[in-house]
Structures are given as structure tokens and as C-alpha cells.
Amino acid sequence: MKTRHCLTDIQRRRTLTAFNALAISTAAVLLSLLPAVASAQTQAQTQTQPHSATHKSAAAHTAQVIAPKVMIVSMFGPEGKVWLDKLGPWQEIRVPGLSPDYPIVRCNEMGVCVMTTGMGHANAAASTMALTFSPRFDLRYTYFLIAGVAGIDPARGTLGTATWANYLVDFDIQWEVDSREAPPNWTTGYLGIFAKNQSDKPPLEYRTEVFELNHRLTDAALALSRDVELADASQAQATRAKYDYAPANQTPRVVQCDTLSGDTWWSGNAMGERAREWTRIVTDGKGNYCTTQQEDNATYEALKRAASAERVDLQRVAVLRTGADFDRPPKGVSSLDNLLNTNEQGGGDIALANLYRAGSPLVQSIVTQWSEWQKGVPAK
To answer: What phi and psi, each to the nearest 5 degrees, are found at residue 289?
Structure first.
């Protein structure tokens, strides 16, 4: 047993000696490598610094806040295209919450931006809210030009007519009974919510039934664009000739009249008369209906919410609508045919062209004379 213990101690001493030698050797190798490691680290830092700087620069660019002078709000692609084709080049800004069909706002060096909301009340409200609460934009001093095509009352305008609105009226916020079951003296099934008859003004409890714009801005826009030459087309002229009264059968011009919002496309004399009557009712006789579209009350309400958070100025909102089709037929044509053949009326292309022709003078005045517009609509 004693001999076995002695042999074990000798083996242990030999093992420790070998281990110590290996440790010393390993340490020497590691020490010899330290200069190379330090050099490699220095080189790596030198190589990554430009990338880091570039990354910081890109982040700073991404975080840049844009303060447009004018924001043009279109509702579908062709309405935006008339501006994009003429006012570039453009910087593209992707804004979370915009329509997936139109996720980008485009801005140029003059301070003009163009966005497209998507069609209808829901798209207009959602996209406008996303824009106005985006941290990418400072819109406190921005002028908003809502510019789109519309149906038009032939007693107030014609195909291609450009209209500047003072009042935005929501046609959808009404009670409706089946017109076939309505009282015999009713022209349609519509009446105001909680009204007693068709001619009563309702309480307007939704608070989005009617909006009044800044008349000074409307007047300035009208004065700047009144004498522009508007686009016209032979197909539109042929459609106008079917009407035996003015201004339906005349050439288009720039006028002031008011616009009606509603997601339902409609056509007909009775509906058209209700549109006139409803506008008179909710504006206390001050409004003058002439165009019908789907978005403007929704867009304005979103801007109003943003204004309550001091992100926009509601006194800087203008609405331009151009006549793409008639809201009721001429004699001898049914309301259904008028609706189904909307595109054959020939007003679509000239209405798009006239958005730019009638709207551009206001846009150019604002951006080229910003010192006069910055604090508000200039005095006459």
C-alpha cells in the first residue's frame, strides 16, 4: 500500500509539471498574438466607421420633418397624376396608415406635396388622419387643396366646369324610407334624422352634416382661376348638346358653388332636386348645390380632428371639384342610362385636366408668394 502511494505521488508531480509547462507555453502563444488582435480590431473599427456614419445620415434623413406649403389631396390615381406629371421631380415619403393602394406622399422642392386617399368616406378619413398625425410632417401652416372630379348639376354647371366650394354637405346622413311607400306628396324617401317632414332642418347631432370653409380662401382661389382656359372635348360637347338649357349646354368655366358628399352613386331628377333642397336646409339657405362626390366631408372631419390637436389650420382648406358627368339626364334619356353610361358622357378626361388648370393658379400663388400667404390668406 505504501509503495502504491509513493508511485501515485510521483505520477501526480509529473502530471502537474506537464500541466504547468503546457500553461506557460499557451500563455506565451497568446501574448504573441495580442499585437495582431489589436491591429485587427483597429482595422475593423476603421472600416465600420464610414458605414456607421452612413447609417446615422440615413436615419437623420428618414427622420427629417417636412413642412409643405401646399398639400394636394386627391382621391384616386388619375386625380393625383395630373399634378405628379407636371410638378416633379418628387421625393417619396412612405407614411404608415395610408391606403395600401397609395402608401406614399410625394413632395417637391417648391414645397408642394401630393397624397391620394383612396375613394369613399372610409378611405378618405383614415388616410387623412394618418397623414395629419404622421411625425414626418409639420402641417400647421400648410394649405390643403382637396381636388377631385365629381358629378355636376346641369342647372349649375357642365362637363368640365371647375367649382370652388364654400360648403361641404353630407348627403348620406338622412333618414330614408322606401320611396314606393313614402307619402304621395314626397318626391323621394329622404328626410333629416329626427325631422318631422322633408323640409325641416334636423338637429345636426352628428356634427359632420355640413362644414363651412374659409370664404376668403375660396374667393382668392376663384379670383386667381376665373379666367383660365379650361380643357374641352368633342364627346363632352355632344353630350351637352342634348340639354336644352344653360349652363349644361355651354362651355365649361370656373365658378363658385357647393358640394355634396355621399358614398352612393345616384342619378335622377328627384334625387337631384333633393340634393338641392338638402343643401339649402342644412346651410340655412346659404349653400348652392352643384357637385356630388364621395369624400369631402370625411376628409374635412379628419382635418378638423387634427386641427383640434393644433396640427393643421382649418382656415387653410380649399375644395375644388370638376364636372366629370351630369347628375341627371337630359330629356328623353332615362336616369338608369345616365348612370350606366357615365363614362360615355365624355367629361372624365377634361375634368381631370381642369383640376390642374383651375387649381394651379392658387398653388403657384402660394408657393411663389409665400411671404404673403404664410400668415394666412392675403387681404385683397
So the answer is: -60, 135
* pLDDT tens for each residue of 291-327: 999 999 999 999 999 999 999 999 999 999 999 999 9
Contact 66, 113 (CB under 8 A): yes
Cell triple for residue 234? 368633342
Q: 43-56 b/e with 16+ CB inside 10 Å = b?
A: eeeeeeeeeeeeee
Instruction: Determine how β-strand 112-116 pairs with β-strand 104-107.
Output: antiparallel
- Evaluate whether 188 touches 271 at the Cβ level (below 8 Å): yes
- pTM listed for this prediction: 0.83
CA angle 339, 260, 334 (to 5 degrees): 20
Could you tell me if 318 and 146 are in contact, meaning their C-beta atoms sit under 8 angstroms apart? yes
As a whole number of angstroms, the distance between CA 232 and CA 123 comes to 30
Question: How far is the first Cα of the chain from the last one, in angstroms, to the nearest whole number?
Answer: 120
Give the residue extent of every domain in the chain: 70-150+214-253+294-321+328-373
Residues 6+ apart with CB under 8 A from 110: 69, 87, 367
Give CA torsion, residues 260, 263, 267, 268, to 10 deg.
-60
Which spans in 161-283 are helix H?
A: 215-225, 234-240, 269-282
